[in-house]
Amino acid sequence: MPPVNLAEKLATFDEHWQPRVIGTFNHHDLMVVKVKGEFVWHSHAHTDDFFLVLKGRITIRMHDGDGDVTLGAGELFVVPRGVEHCPYAEEEAHLLLIETAGTPNTGDVATAAPRRTI
Amino acid sequence: MPPVNLAEKLATFDEHWQPRVIGTFNHHDLMVVKVKGEFVWHSHAHTDDFFLVLKGRITIRMHDGDGDVTLGAGELFVVPRGVEHCPYAEEEAHLLLIETAGTPNTGDVATAAPRRTI
């Protein structure tokens, strides 16, 4: 894969909660996504969920008793596999996500965003 | 793991080419590192090598015929497993690295930096 400028990739689309694959790494998808508002509660049984905030601020609500985690730009968090979570952003935020290749973003292929590469 | 502020972690040390583990993700180490000057030519047989530049600029020289890749802040690149490479930074640069847990940074346990968690 060629080098990737994350801001340039993010400038190519506007939709929220529709990750774009910008590379692969050890059988994982490297993705950028724009988010705003509340996503759905979900979990991933077979992969941890890597979040790095590139711009803005997000809160990741969790059902595991640890409560909410709020992240600003330059902050990362890993939701462990199997933990129910619900990302939320009051204003638009930009993220780098990493998950096992092909993981449905809602935890369910029936409702997942299509996996698009840019 | 708790949320990680990358700049705060980087502020806790000064050495170059001495990665610090700041979290784990799907059996990978998430690391921050400060680099300056030239590293050693090396390869990793069993893991791709993820580089995201957080500050500054690096060049990754490669022996696979593709030549050099230069990355600035907000740019990422994955060196495929098995590809000989030599990172170089004229001025100090700060990076997020991801590799399979325990991978020696020089490709050789005899010469690798100790794997330290902060």
Automatic annotation (TrEMBL), chains A, B:
InterPro entries (alphabetical): Cupin_2, PKS_Associated_Protein, RmlC-like_jellyroll, RmlC_Cupin_sf
Any matching Pfam family: Cupin_2
PANTHER family the UniProt entry points to: 16.7 KDA PROTEIN IN WHIE LOCUS (PTHR36114)
SUPFAM superfamilies for the chain: RmlC-like cupins (SSF51182)
Naturally occurring in which organism (per UniProt): Gemmatimonas groenlandica
Cupin type-2 domain mapped to chain residues: 30-97
CDD domains per the UniProt record, alphabetical: cupin_YdbB-like
Protein name: Cupin domain-containing protein
